[in-house]
Automatic annotation (TrEMBL), chain B:
<feature type="transmembrane region" description="Helical">
    <location>
        <begin position="243"/>
        <end position="261"/>
    </location>
</feature>
<feature type="transmembrane region" description="Helical">
    <location>
        <begin position="165"/>
        <end position="186"/>
    </location>
</feature>
<feature type="transmembrane region" description="Helical">
    <location>
        <begin position="141"/>
        <end position="159"/>
    </location>
</feature>
<keyword id="KW-1133">Transmembrane helix</keyword>
<keyword id="KW-0472">Membrane</keyword>
<keyword id="KW-0812">Transmembrane</keyword>
<feature type="transmembrane region" description="Helical">
    <location>
        <begin position="85"/>
        <end position="105"/>
    </location>
</feature>
<protein>
    <recommendedName>
        <fullName>ABC transporter permease</fullName>
    </recommendedName>
</protein>
<feature type="transmembrane region" description="Helical">
    <location>
        <begin position="50"/>
        <end position="73"/>
    </location>
</feature>
Amino acid sequence: MIVIDSASPVPPFEQLRAQLARQIQDRTLAVGTRLPTIRRLAADLGLAVNTVGRAYRELEEAGLIETRGHAGSFVSAAGEEGRERARRAAVEYATVVASIGLDTNEALRIVQAALTKGIAASPSPSP
Amino acid sequence: MSEEAVPEGGSPVRPAHLEIARLWLAARGLTDVPPPLLAARLTARRRARLAASVLLAVFLCAAALVYVSALPIRPADDELGTQRRWALVVLTVLVAGVVLGLSLLDRWVRRVDQQAGAELPRRATHSVRPGWRTVLGVPRAALLAITYAAAAVLALVALTVRDGAAKYAAVILLIGLCGVGAGTAVQLRHVFTHPVVADDEDSLKADFLMRVEDAREVALPTVVWSLPIVSVFDTGLDPWNTGWLVFMILSIIALLLITAWEGRRALAAQHASSAR
C-alpha cells in the first residue's frame, strides 16, 4: 500500500519514492513485479503525472526499477545487489570495529548516528 | 428530509444513506471505515444501476417494437425492404443511445468517486494495482466472452443459413449484441481504470470490494439472454430455437456454478484468516 499525506512537509514525490524504495528493499515488491503506470498511479493518488514521473525517475537512477519501453516499469534485481552491498559493508565495518577494539554499543551508536544523518539528508516517508 | 454533515468538511449525507453504508461495511467486516466516505459512492452506484436497468429494459422493448413494426415478412423474402431498412436504422440509433447512456451513467459514478477522493487529506492505493483477473476473475470473464461469442455465432449462422423472418431476427439480434457488448466494454473499462478512493488499508479494501461488485454486476450477461426473446422465439420451438434455449440454460447454469464456487472460496478464505 502507498499513502500520500498532503499535510506532510515531505514533498509528495519523495513520499512516493521513499515508500516504493522501502517496499522494494523489504521485498514487499518482489524482483520483476510490474509497477502501475505513471498515469494510473497519478490518478489513484490524486497527484500530477510529473510528480509520479519524478519519483519513478529517481527510483530508476537508484537502480531499484527499470523501464522496459512500452511494457512498463519493473522492480529490478539491483535492489537485491544493494542489499548484498550493505551486508558486505557491514562485515567490513564489524572488522574495523573489532580491530580497533571499539565497544559494541558505541559501534552501534556510530551506525545509528550515520543512518540518522542520512535520513535527515533525505526526508523520511509519512507513516 | 434531515441531513447529517460529514466530518472534515465533506458534503452532507442523508442518514438513510449513511445507514446503508454502515450495513454494507458491516456485511463485509469493515468496521474501521467511516461510513460517510462510502455513503455518497454507494448511493451513486445504486441509482446508476437502477437507471442502467431501466435503460436496458427500454432498449429491449424498443428492439421488440422495431422487430414487430416490420412484420409480416414472407418466408421467401430475403431482401430487406425500405420499411425494414428504416427499422434497422432506428435500432442502430437506439443502440448508440444505450451505449452513450451507459457511458454517461458510469461517468457520473466516477465523478462522485473523484469528488469523494478530493475530500481526503490522505490518499492510499495499491503498490501493484489489482488487474482484471483479481477484480473480475477468470471464470466470469470467460463466461462473459463465451456467452457473447456463442450468441454472435448463433446469430451469424442464422443470418447465413436461414431466410425471411428468421434472417431479419438475426440482424436485429446482431445489432443488439454489438450495442450491449460495446456498453459492457465501456462500463468494464471504467471499473478497471477509475481511480482508487481510499485513505488507509481498510478503506482501500472497501474500495477494492466495491470495484469487484461493480465488475460482477456489469459482467452479468442478462441482456444477451433476453435479446433472443425479442425476436428469435416468435417462430415456435423449432430445432434452431431449441439450440438457443440450450445455450441460455447452459450459460445460466455456468453462472450459478461460478457464483457457488466463488462463495465457497470466499468462505474458506474467511475461515483461514480468522484461524490465523
